[in-house]
Amino acid sequence: MLRVSLREISAALKEGQVTPTELCQRCLSFIKATKFLNAYITIAEETALKQAEESEERYRRGQILGDLDGIPVAVKDNFNTAGIETTCASNMLKGYIPPYNATVVQKLLDQGAVLLGKTNLDEFAMGSGSTDGIFGPVRNPWSYSRQYRDKCVQNSHPEKEDSNWLITGGSSGGSAAAVSSFTCFAALGSDTGGSTRNPAAHCGVVGLKPTYGLISRHGLIPLVNSMDVPGILTRCVDDAAIVLGVLAGHDPKDSTTVQDPFKSFELTCFTDASKLCIGIPKEYHAPGLSSETLALWSKAADLFENAGAKVIEVSLPHTRYSVVCYHVLCTSEVASNMARFDGLEYGHRSSMDKSTEVMYAATRREGFNDVVRGRILSGNYFLLKQNYENYFIKAQKVRRLIAKDFVNVFHSGIDVLLTPTTLSDTIPYVEFIKEDNRTRSAQDDIFTQAANMAGLPAITVPTALSEKGLPVGLQFIGRAFQEQQLLTVAKWFEKQVKFPMIQLQGIMDHGHTVSHHQKSAFFS
Amino acid sequence: MAASILGRCWGSLLAQRCRTGDVPVLHNGQTWRRAQAPGSIASGRRAGNSPAGERGVAPWVAVVGLEIHAQISSNSKLFSGSQVQFAAPPNSLVSFFDASLPGTLPALNRRCVEAAVMTGLALNCRINKKSLFDRKHYFYADLPAGYQITQQRLPVAVNGSLSYSLCVGGKKNQMVTRTVRIKQIQLEQDSGKSLHDDTRSQTLIDLNRAGVGLMEVVMEPDMSSGEEAAAAVRELQLILQTLGSSQAIMAEGQLRVDANVSVHHPGEAYGVRTEVKNINSARFLARAIDYEIQRQIKELENGQTVMNETRAFDYKLGCTIPMRDKEGKQDYRFMPEPNLPPLILYDSKSLPANMNHQQVVNIDWIRERLPDLPSVKRVKLVEQYGILPEHSFTLLNEDGLMEFFQNVVRQTQMNPKKVIGWILNDMLCYLKQHNLTVKESPVSSLLLADLLNLLERGAISSSAAKQVFEELWKGEGKTPLQIVKEKKLELIQDQQEFEQICQAVMEGHQEEVMEIKKGNRKVLNKLIGLVQRTTRGRADPVLVKQILEKRLSQ
């Protein structure tokens, strides 16, 4: 039952096939069964059961709040949740219990959703592996899938098996793993340079990064204010559209949200692809792109072409400057945003309190990991008076050029861009940690951060399994505030590729069958 | 109430300071009149053609610029909904944003923007239709976010001017008007307050003030003395209070002044400047600046150098002392505030038709509703009542005094030119002696008008009127007429009685009578005075003079 989509479980709840409490209990026990994935930092069992009970009462009275009523969800641990510890996977905020809900969390709760817990991440969302948080790395559920095990066993020694577990990607790896392993029906991530899409692709789920300004950031503990957006992770595109409809809209508490009212939409299946124009950015043929992913990407292009769509190669000439430019802007804002963590008002405070300055220094040294401290240092360097023009201002100018590249492409008639989401399928943890966080982030964000720089909506759709039996996702980038068009295309694509469902051996009971319409894989 | 105390301090301060010279050229503690037209100061070029000091040493010229932080009068803070209130219990007015809880975001308060636009217009500024917010970073315990949101790159208002007047010359009543250029007005957040408990070596933080809206008014270095700076600040204070954009009460920290001071020889480049902070009362502003000017001159004349540093004014010692720098040389690492879109203002032309009026600020709308500024009020007072310009200054400088004056004028037949004398000489004098504000005066405008009417009708003499005023001041609830009756202060109407009194005085002072008869008319006044004394002010001096003259000529 847990493996169905949000839409399906919502229907089941409405029909009384399952009660919110039953559903919540099942999810909770499954979270416990999959504890080794380390997807959750905090399990809010008590409040979740209470919320489920309240939902049940609403169902009984026939007064449900919406499609999400009674639906178990998870939230990345960098969104504020009133009364529930919010840590950002950092010593700095360990034990911190916020007094308020992030707007997106409040909106979920207002719709009757049941908040199961807070998911794991890289410390302060800085990373692309979900490996660099104080609660340890998140394990990719696909590490334990039959699809991967079958291939893996042929190539490796069984004794190595346990050390060969795979990373989820990041930084919203906990949310991706939670959705992928069926412990919840939707999860919130955050996306600054690809932090929702990257783990979604590696975990075989849908990851949506909405247009900047469409969803409130109030209560999301910021990484880069000018690029952060709450991300949505679900098992299918339809579900992402439902959650988007709940979350989108102006928030007076976030001045960067647009005033125009947002109309939630139901996705229709388009039948006529001939009016569609898909752009393939040539600059995305980046070094390091696996031949497998490249092949999938081009097959996907063919798929659209065969359906009658126009598929055109386009150019985004400033793409190659994007990663370095992102680095400057990201670290600068990080340096600024992290300044508030001084141990005075909240969070960790060092016992070294000889003077205020000594306390600041010790608090921040003890509270932040090397990655965070490294970014703070570089960011402050870029913001120094003597460097500001050469780095920050220049990066801002390049950012504008990158955004303009997209405007030009869309202006030329392209509806949606099709790109890879990641260079390849995911890799084992032991491989991943051979490189430092900075190098990894630069590589792993390569296809995703440009959409953040330009503020555009983008979605990754699980496309096929690699030779190793691991998911590969492809990314669609749409026009600003044209989520409906973007998701319609994504849904059509999703339907064509028939991505196989994860088969979790020994984790789920074997009695459940995989829904047959998803059995045949896209490119097997 | 504090406002008026302040006003009074200032009034007396001006009165004292006005006796010093014109634009002073300074030399180690002494003041000369500068051989230059005062108007040239306003151009920002100063003293380039000034002659060398009379004693063969080149004189010093001081340059003073001001940065003034005015707390915006608003119900809530600049970026949050917390209330703004003076002297509330510590940390009782702190929103999540004010405490910089992670994930909170700023939302700009429209009222604060309107106050800044209003102030900008009143100071003849160009209002920027697009302005931007920036973050200014520094670590300090009462700055919870580690940065202040301010307007560094593109402030809301620029290029304005402020005209102010001050007394010059040996006499108090010579007023000149000067102009200081306003570089910019920027919106920014206030910080919290740190209270250092040295005995327990603790610092206590109160965040009530954190995030309150400030207007930073930056004045160009167009002033050259403490006196000028004080007059400019006083005028700004009056303007802010008239607009209601700030209560501008210095004692409550709603108006805080930092002064940049340097000295140089005429014709040479400006000297190294110091910044004088902690000037939290109007009384000390002129004193702090003048002290700093003298200090710098002394340093330079002793062959020392002036260091570019921040100094605090110690009002107990009456001097400036170096402040310990917060973290050495600061690099504020400015960057754009990413959580606030550009602040866009409209005028009637650019106002989009479909815009919700609650969400936009229309510059023209604000301009049309600006109240009369102090300078306009003064001109009107002079024109309407025929009073002297300096009187109009005093009327505005005391909170409520202008209204009091106008009420009295409305209720009497007495010429306003005479009324103003009673207001400024008697009324104000009593208020100051008793340290009271106009509103606290035991003599209401109605009572004073009644009294002046008695005087005007000839029912009492002016010296009797002063006695009545003294009685009224006791605030016993008697009317002037009652006091006159009780004290028998009416003018003597009985001609015979009058003649007898005059006769008696003349008989008692034969020597004086002889003097007058010899032609020394001045002595006549003495006789008149004697008659007045005998009647305890109940004699009409004109009548007394007539009778005496008649009798002397007999």
Write a structural description.
The complex is a heterodimer of chains A (about 525) and B (about 550). Chain A is of the alpha/beta class and about 525 residues long. Chain A contains 17 helices and eleven strands. In chain A, strands 1-3-2-4-6-5-10-11-9-7-8 form an eleven-stranded mixed sheet, with helices on both faces. In chain A, strand 10 (about 460-465) and strand 11 (about 470-480) form a beta hairpin. Chain B is of the alpha+beta class. Chain B has helices spanning about 1-15, 110-120, 225-245, 280-300, 365-370, 375-385, 390-395, 400-410, 415-435, 445-455, 460-475, 480-485, 495-510, 510-515, 525-535, 540-554; strands spanning about 25, 30-35, 60-70, 125, 130, 135, 145-150, 155-170, 175-190, 195, 200-205, 215-220, 255-265, 275-280, 310-315, 320, 335, 345. In chain B, the strands form five sheets. In chain B, strands 4-8-9-12-3-13-14-15-16 form a nine-stranded mixed sheet. In chain B, strands 7-6-17 form a three-stranded antiparallel sheet, with no helix packed on it. Chain B starts with a helix and ends with a helix. The relative contact order of chain B is 0.11. The model of chain B is unreliable at about 1-55 (pLDDT under 50). The interface of A and B includes residues 218 and 333 of A.
What is this structure's SSE topology?
The complex is a heterodimer of chains A (524) and B (554).
Chain A: H1 6-15, H2 20-33, E1 40-43, H3 45-61, E2 72-76, H4 103-110, E3 114-119, H5 146-155, H6 173-180, E4 186-191, H7 197-203, E5 206-209, E6 229-234, H8 237-247, E7 277-281, H9 291-306, E8 310-314, H10 319-337, H11 356-367, H12 370-383, H13 385-411, E9 416-420, H14 429-432, H15 437-444, H16 449-454, E10 458-465, E11 471-478, H17 483-497
Parallel strand pairs in A: 2-3, 2-4, 7-8, 7-9
Antiparallel strand pairs in A: 1-3, 4-6, 5-6, 5-10, 9-11, 10-11
Chain B: H1 2-17, E1 24-27, E2 30-33, E3 61-71, H2 110-122, E4 126-127, E5 130-131, E6 134-137, E7 147-150, E8 157-168, E9 174-189, E10 193-197, E11 202-206, E12 213-219, H3 226-243, E13 255-264, E14 274-279, H4 282-301, E15 310-314, E16 319-322, E17 335-336, E18 343-344, H5 363-368, H6 374-385, H7 389-397, H8 401-411, H9 416-433, H10 445-457, H11 462-473, H12 480-487, H13 495-508, H14 510-517, H15 523-535, H16 541-553
Helix pairs in contact in B: 3-4, 6-7, 8-9, 8-10, 10-11, 13-15, 13-16, 14-15, 15-16
